[in-house]
Structure formats: C-alpha cells, structure tokens
Amino acid sequence: MRTVRFGIIGCGMIGREFASAAARWLHLPEMTVRPQIVAVCNRTLATPKIDWFRDHIPTLKQVTSDYRELLGNPDVEAVYIAVPHHLHAEIYLEAMEAGKHLMGEKPFGIDRQANEAIFACVRKHPELCVRCASQFFFFPAAQRIGRMIEAGAFGKIIEVNVGFLHSSDLNPDKPINWKRTRQFNGDYGCLGDLGPHVCTLPFRAGWVPRNVRAVLSNIIPSRPDGQGGVVPCETWDNATLLCEMEVTDSGERFPLTLRAHRISPGQRNNWYIEILGTAASARYSLRQANTLEVLEYQGGAEQQWRRIEMGQETAFRSITQELAQFGVCDAILQMWAAYLYELHAGRPLSRFAGCARPEETALWHRLFTAALESQAGGKTVPVSR
Ligand SMILES: NC(=O)c1ccc[n+]([C@@H]2O[C@H](COP(=O)([O-])OP(=O)(O)OC[C@H]3O[C@@H](n4cnc5c(N)ncnc54)[C@H](O)[C@@H]3O)[C@@H](O)[C@H]2O)c1
Predict the structure, then answer these.
(1) Is 298 exposed, middle or buried (0-12, 13-18, 19+ CB in 10 A)?
(2) 3-state DSSP call for residue 290?
(3) Which atom of ligand 1 approaches the CA of 105 most closely?
(4) Same domain, 53 and 191
(5) Ligand 1 binding pocket includes 227 (Cβ within 6 Å)
(6) Are 185 and 73 part of one and the same domain?
(7) Which of 8, 43, 193 should be mutated for ligand 1, with most atoms under 8 A from CB?
(8) What does the pLDDT look like over 237-249, one tens digit per residue?
(9) What is the pTM of this model?
(10) 53 and 176: one domain?
(11) Helices (H) and strands (E) in the chain, counts
(12) CATH no. for residue 195?
C-alpha cells in the first residue's frame, strides 16, 4: 500500500470533508494507495475547526497559518487547497511550483484570467497530478449514466437538462459571507460556485458548448452584515443558461439547459441531470439519490420509464453492502479514491471515474465568461474554443 502524505490548505467546510474521507479509507478494500494528512493550514488557528483537526488526525505534524510554510514542508507530497476563490490562482501556482500534487477546488480560479494562469502552470508541470474536486458525478447513478454515454446507449442526443438547485440563500436575513461578495467570490457568483458541478458530466461526455444565452438574477441585492447593518449583495443568486452543444465525435448539435440556483424554493441540494436521446433517455436527481430512471426505446414499442435502485454500484468497491443507500460523504470518498488512484496509476480507473481535469475547468471558464457577456448584452454569445 502506497501512502501519499497530504497537506490541507483551507480548513473550512469542505477541507474537513477530505479529512473525514481520509479517516474512512478502510472503506475501500481494493485501494493500493491511501492519503495520510500530515499538515494543515488555515488563515486563523484559534478556532474550534483547528481543534477538530488536532483532535482527530493522529498523523498531523504541522499546523500553520502560513501556506508557504506548509508548501515548504518536504514531508508534504500533495495538497488539497480549499480556500475562497480570490486565492485559488496564487496558492495553486505556488503549490505546483513547490512540486506538490494538487487537488484544487472549483471554480479553479476566480475568473478566466486566473484559470488561464493556473492552466499555464499545469502545463509546465506534467509530472504533477493536478485535478479539481467535484463529487456529484461519483454517485452510482451518474456513473451508470457515464457508462451509458460511453456505450452510445442514448442514440442521437435530443436534449440535455442539468442543474444544481439550492435554497441556501432563500432567507433574506442570512448574513453576507465571502461566497456572496464579488471581491472574494468573483463576477460569476452562483455560476462559479454551483456551475462546475453541473458541467462536469456533460463536458466529460465530450459535449462542448458552442454558444450560450444566459439570464442571471440578483434576487436579494442586500443582506445583513452580521453586525447590525445592511450591505449590498452583488453576486448573482441564480443563473439559467441555454446552450447549443456539439458532440465532439460526431459534430451533432443539441440544446442543453443549465440551472445553477442558490434561491430555489423547495430545494436543498439538488444536483440533477436529464438526457433525452433517440434510443434511450435517463433522468436522475439527488432528491431521490438512489433511483435512476431509464427509458429505452425501440421503434414502435411502448415507452416505459424503468426505475433502478442503485445501491452501492460504485466505481471503487466499498465494504458497504451492495444494496445499501449511497450518500454525499460516499461520493466525496469515491472522488478522493479517483484522485489517489490516478496519482498512483498515472491514469484514471475509467473515463467517468476520474476527477475534473484542468482543461475541463478551462471550458467551465469559457462558458461562464460568455454567460456574463450574454447577460450584460441580452444576447446569445459564442463560447470561445
Ligand atoms: N466540492 C464541493 O462540494 C464544495 C463545497 C463547498 C465549497 N467548495 C469550494 O471549496 C473552497 C472553500 O469553500 P468552503 O465552503 O470550504 O469555505 P469556508 O469558508 O468554509 O473555508 C475556507 C477556509 O479557508 C481559510 N482561508 C482563507 N484564506 C486562507 C489563507 N490565505 N491561507 C489558509 N487558509 C485560508 C479560511 O480560514 C476558511 O477556514 C471554495 O473554492 C469552494 O468553491 C467545494
């Protein structure tokens, strides 16, 4: 068993999820590589979050508030960087220059310029395994959809609808934080936060946006500042995109709708995908996380949606019994297994069991930048190649 020694930079909400996944590695009996967290870095150390790391990670040797100190630690081979978006380019670049394998967070740069700088550095360091976290397409149903795409099961694609719907900002009394502040979150707003998760599967399928018409909404333009005052909240809350997509292999085109909504009444954390094709259709939503619906159609036959209960049909085998339900923490564990597998083997386990690649993040940025232009001009905008 190979052990890869990790440092975490940014010990917030999602940084802790990696620590939890690493602690549950014994869930994956066939892995021949495992992470070991030896260092953490957070802007502030005097917080219960850091006590949590100290209390639960016996292998932890370095705790620092200076990410350069962590990057200078020769014991650290790989880093997971989960910091606000305005810091992505700076810290990702320094991590790669320090020779660390990198799992970054979406959107992999606050804007297109930052993403291009990161991508240029990735090209300079082909010896490093650099990927971006996005766990949703590791849900068993999404993996099954991936295999259907690989097998050409859908026939000609008629239409695809994807989205990520939250209600995290429905409450107008929720105080502002960095994710609702342009300086730290960027001009993309909700698109930069939720959009990457939605693009991951269609882009991996080889479906590329040619143009986009976007309608972006700032539904709650001011929020409490948490200190008794009210401040402007300038980030986009909801983004609805209509894209013309092209299938890379065949050149065929189809419409795709993408919804990245932070204010979606009745939703909590609903990542969904619907693919309508001439030979088969599939639909999946995290509202019913274990159920995949598939309709296979042969000329003249009756149309019937089948419901498949997925259980633990995972890319990386788990000790959990096959019929048991799968959840978000399991998806995060599978994503980390995919990253470690690829770091170790030099290639992903399969086409859809690999984390988002830097070139895929570049396509997110081309689409999101075009979406901003579309919104500003009220017109359809080509997505640059
Ligand atoms: N994959 C997912 O599902 C998912 C979910 C949430 C967030 N994210 C992404 O993860 C990243 C972090 O988001 P979060 O929700 O964990 O945010 P968070 O605010 O909970 O955590 C960010 C952490 O970074 C620390 N930090 C800030 N500046 C730093 C610096 N210079 N050096 C070291 N630490 C610093 C903060 O102290 C904080 O603890 C973002 O890119 C976000 O888009 C991904």
Answers:
(1) exposed
(2) coil
(3) 41
(4) no
(5) no
(6) no
(7) 43
(8) 999 999 999 999 9
(9) 0.97
(10) no
(11) 10, 17
(12) 3.30.360.10
